[in-house]
Amino acid sequence: MSSSEMDRRDFLAAVPAAAYVLMQASRGVASASASASTAAVAARLEPFDYDGVKLLDSRWLRQYQAGRDVYFNVSDDDILHGYREAAGLPAPGKALGGWCRKTSDTVFGQWLSGMARMYRATGDQGMKEKAVGLLHEWAKTVGPDGNCRMGTYAYDKLVCGLVDLQLYAGVSEAIPLLEKVTDWADRTFSRARTLRSPSDPTAYYGLPSEWYTLSENLYRAYQLTNDTKFQTFAEVWLYHDYWNKFANTSLPNDAQGAHAYSHVNTFSSAAKTYEVTGDEKYLTICKNAWNYIQNTQCFATGGYGPSERFVTPDGSLGKSLNTRADTAETPCGSWATYKFSRYMMQFTGEAHYGDWAERMLYNGNGAALTPDHDGNSFYYADYRVGGGKKVPFWEAWPCCSGTFIQNIADYHNLIYYKTDSDLYVNMYLPSVLTWRRAAGGGTVTVTQQTSYPESDTSTLTLDVAQPTRFALNFRVPSWTRGASVSVNGSTGSGSYAPGTWGTVTREWKKGDTLEIRIPLTLRMEAVDKWHPDRV
User: Fold this and answer.
1) Per-residue DSSP letters for 255-286?
2) Tens digits of per-residue pLDDT, 385-416?
3) CA 179, CA 185: separation in Å to the nearest integer?
4) Alpha helices in 297-377 (DSSP H)
5) Do residues 148 and 87 make contact, with C-beta atoms less than 8 angstroms apart?
């Protein structure tokens, strides 16, 4: 093989990683530290991006640990079996079965993503090593031309996983491999598409499968690398035919019939398009889509999509509770909600966008059964009025076993937001935050202790190296009334409007406490306006 034909993976094995970084720099490709350099829109709020947040003992931490152990103990040979077999390589182990009976396409990229985010959040070296081992062995199955034998559905997840391995785990091999498979995908993926059809039950998600979610992760690759090939390929998959239904209204007359999870997920692509281009129309589309979903598609739990579809806003949501066991796609639906909510909070700074993520945290993935070692995975929440059941999906390792690992990693990224100077508390979960404050004042440590929502209070204890003045903001859920705070035991006199940020600004000292009280009241919500007594 000539040097010009040498595979990038082999090149990386032959030279120090530092040389690769220099090569990338000479090509104008940014390092991970410049991941936001291509954003045209400055975020009003920023998440902590899996850095500096530690979960304390709680059901969330226990679910995280149980899920982590399941994924960590899945055999690498079983995960890789189908890929090795397709490449004509020795293939020890056996296929995972179920949705992964041929290859692990359904989950592979998401598992890499979840493992990378777990490492970033917790420093779990074992999980990073597992992800790197899977990456190295999987790369051997990729053809010299970049052929990874994936369609749009699996490739989208792969892009996410490879971006996350570089961004969150510093795995330098991920990006040249991503370049290679993207060049192949750009050459070979058909641009022909069958759009979702409200009248055709076989085309509710569009073909090729879920192509309209691709832009988000390709834009993330562009932001990470500054390589315009990813930007150009992202633009191929923009979903104007559906997004534009929401350009001027939050109640379009023909948005129903679409695959619910993926069509919530596609609005994360619209949000990322807004971030990269700065075009306000995409933010308007996202706001209108948000209102459409909240006002016509969501149950009180935050779940959505009976029979995995957006329903016609004519009472169909309420009627579905008579018969449908597949009421809401739970881990996947939670993942789409968490992302969409985060984008909207980042770009608008508005607290009420956290409410949907909160509902799905408690009633969605947080209430889901953890997958077991055989791949039995929770998929559908069942809200039938005649009596629902919580059972695994009937096939092993379905799509929701891919998003479940990302969801439990995401618990670290839902709780707090920041600006250069101020802190925002979005979720009330037992946790410790280490905040390296950009505006000066050194490091601020916040310990949150709470049993919310079993109790109505959460107590934040601050540790600062020196007295530091900043605003500590907390999300007042839209459903509560009479939220209040006390500082160091003294009750404040302020009133805090539902659906907004409550704010306490002061010079904080070591040992200061802020107790937030969110009154919990029994309330009923009609499933839709056509069923006012179905609550």
Assistant:
1) -TTSBHHHHHHHHHHHHHHHHHH--HHHHHHH
2) 989 999 999 999 999 999 999 999 999 999 99
3) 10
4) 316-320, 330-348, 354-363
5) no
Whether the CB-CB separation of 213 and 269 falls below 8 Å is answered with yes
Helix%, strand%, coil% for the chain, nearest 5 = 45, 15, 40
Please name the residues in contact with 443: beta carbons below 8 A apart, sequence gap of 6 or more. Answer: 434, 435, 436, 437, 464, 465
pTM of this prediction exceeds 0.70: yes
**Cα dihedral angle (212, 223, 339, 62), rounded to 10 degrees?**
130
Average pLDDT, the chain: 92
What are phi and psi for residue 360, nearest 5 degrees? -75, -25
Structure tokens at 534: 């179905």
Can you read off the two tokens belonging to residue 472? 């500590």
For the residues 277-298, what does the mean pLDDT come to? 98
Type of residue at 475 = R
In degrees and rounded to multiples of 5, residue 433 shows phi and psi of -110, 130
Q: State the DSSP code for 492.
A: P
Encode pLDDT of 89-104 as tens digits.
999 999 999 999 999 9
How distant is the alpha carbon of residue 503 from its chain centre?
27
